[in-house]
Each structure stands twice: as C-alpha cells, then as structure tokens.
Design goal:
Blueprint: E1 3-6, E2 13-16, H1 26-39, E3 41-44, H2 51-58, E4 82-87, E5 98-99, E6 116-123, E7 131-135, H3 136-141, H4 145-151, E8 155-159, E9 164-166, H5 171-176, E10 182-186, E11 188-190, E12 197-199, E13 206-209, H6 214-228, E14 234-237, E15 244-248, E16 252-255, E17 265-273, E18 287-288
Parallel strand pairs: 2-3
Antiparallel strand pairs: 1-2, 3-15, 4-17, 5-9, 6-15, 6-17, 7-14, 7-16, 8-10, 8-13, 10-18, 11-12
C-alpha cells in the first residue's frame, strides 16, 4: 500500500512506499492516478530512473509524446525528453539574457496541450532551485459567483512566447518562437476526469481574452493571475537527488526558480503525456487560432 502525504491544503502530495518503474502493478498505477487527480501534483523521493525507464514509466499513465513542438531534441535517441537547465545569473552583467519565470501550464499554445508531465532531477544545487505549483481548480472555486458567471462564457488565445526580464533574445528563445503557434481555449475548462471547473489561463502563454477589448482583457486576466498565485492554492517543492514530480497539466500551473546559487548548475529531464482539446461550460472546444477577434 502506498502512503499519500498532502503537502498543502489544496495542492501537492508526496507519495511514499512505492518504487517507480515500468513494472508497477495495475492497482498501484490506479492509486497513483487517483492521488494525481485529487492533489494535481504528486512527488516521489529516492527514485532511480534513467531515460529509458522514465519514458516507460510515463507510458503506464498515457502516451508519451515528442519532447516539444519547436525545440530541437537534446537526445536524438530519446526524442521524448526535454532538458531543463538553469545556472546562476550574474545580475551585475548587463549583457546577460535572463528570461522571466512566470506561472504557466505547459504548451497551452497548442489546441491539444499535454495531459501531464513527469519531471526528474538530474543535477541539483545544494539549495535553491525549488519549483512551485498552483491548483487551478481550487483557484476557480475560490472566485466570487458573479466573476465565475462572467468568465464561464469567455475564451482566450494562447501563443508561444518567452518573456525577457533582461538582455536580448538568446538561442533558446529563438528556437522556442521559431514557429508561430496559437490556440484558442475556453477561459474556464471542464476537467475531463474530475468534472471540476478550472481557470485555464496563464501569464506566460495567454495573449488575451478573445471576446473582450485588450484593456478589458488585461484587467480580467490580472485578476485571475492574482487568484491563481495566491499562497492558499500553491505548493513549493524542494528537490533532492532522486526526486520526481508528476503533475496534471490540465489543472495546474507551475513556476520555475531563478535562485540557483553562484557556481552551481540545475538540470532536470521532463517527459509529457498526450492530452486533448479542452471543453468549456458553454461547449466551446479548443481549436487552433487563425485570426483576430473582438479584442
């Protein structure tokens, strides 16, 4: 039997008593999936995965997809793996490019974003480098009824951009934005397994609300971003060697760290599981975005 240990009121649980491998029995897979749906992100410690077992493990929970729609694969023999690297930033160096790390759900600029992601630690600094997640279903539930009524009818456009905090575009940003990708999703999504309503917008990739003017859109989105960033709905995970995080990309947003200490390197490897279009309360289904609208 596995042990599910919640890490905050709404978001995140540590799963104990299980060794992750492609050979997990069906009952354990079902327990892990149930914990994922309840807590939106789950954490494992002291695991020993390599690239092959990482991918094979993911296949027990869904279809593992190619690493990223625009970034070239780091490992041609493992095209499913995205490498996420961070080093200390020299904030006194005016020539350094620093990307702003905003809350986001993965690949929402596609009409069929991933169902989930599994991230494992490869190299870690002795401190710093934590990741935060927020529960977008709990964030929606915490809104007032009039605001819920308004946003239930709206849709939003998402696009693949990375935001600069400092400096000029680097190769990562150029590769990331090498193909223009845009999708239109319901602003409130119905989770396909739990039936919960989810605030489906994020500061990184959401461009604007389709039905509103740009100034109106900016105000509404700012309100929603304040809500999803509320500490009430978030959890912060401190990585250790052997740590693994598995999150439901349909119901969470996450934020990567900037606080890698000087002289250290942080490297993670991620796989993603195939998802599908999102459906809103009025029946709108996610689609590729091809042109302008009211905003």
């Amino acid at each position: 039997m596995i042990e599910v240990v919640p890490q905050s009121q709404h978001t995140g649980a540590e799963i104990r008593g299980v060794t992750l491998s492609p050979d997990l029995d069906e009952a354990t897979v079902a327990e892990i999936r149930a914990a994922l749906l309840r807590w939106k992100v789950i954490f494992f410690r002291d695991q020993d995965l390599d690239r092959d077992t990482h991918i094979a493990l993911g296949a027990r929970f869904g279809e593992v997809t190619p690493a990223h729609p625009t970034l070239p694969p780091r490992f041609p023999d493992h095209p499913e793996i995205v490498v996420i690297q961070k080093d200390a930033h020299g904030h006194d160096d005016p020539d350094e490019t620093i990307l702003e790390h905003r809350w986001h759900s993965d690949v929402t600029y596609m009409a069929e974003p991933p169902m989930g992601s599994i991230l494992r630690a490869v190299e870690l600094p002795p401190y710093g480098g934590d990741t935060e997640w927020t529960n977008l279903a709990a964030a929606y539930a915490g809104l007032s009824t009039p605001l819920k009524t308004m946003i239930d009818d709206l849709t939003a456009v998402h696009h693949n951009v990375l935001h600069l905090m400092r400096g000029e575009p680097n190769q990562l940003q150029k590769d990331f934005e090498s193909v223009r990708l845009r999708a239109r999703h319901p602003l409130v999504s119905i989770h396909p397994e739990t039936g919960e309503k989810v605030v489906y917008a994020n500061p990184d990739f959401t461009s604007h609300i389709y039905e509103l003017t740009r100034p109106e859109s900016a105000h509404v989105l700012a309100c929603l971003y304040d809500q999803l960033a509320s500490r009430e709905f978030t959890v912060r995970f401190r990585w250790e060697p052997g740590s693994v995080a598995f999150w439901d990309n349909r119901a969470t947003a996450h934020r990567a760290p900037l606080d890698v200490p000087e002289g250290y390197h942080r490297e993670m490897e991620r796989i993603t599981l195939r998802g599908g279009p999102h459906t809103g309360p009025t029946g709108f289904v996610s689609e590729e975005f091809r042109g302008p609208a009211g905003g």
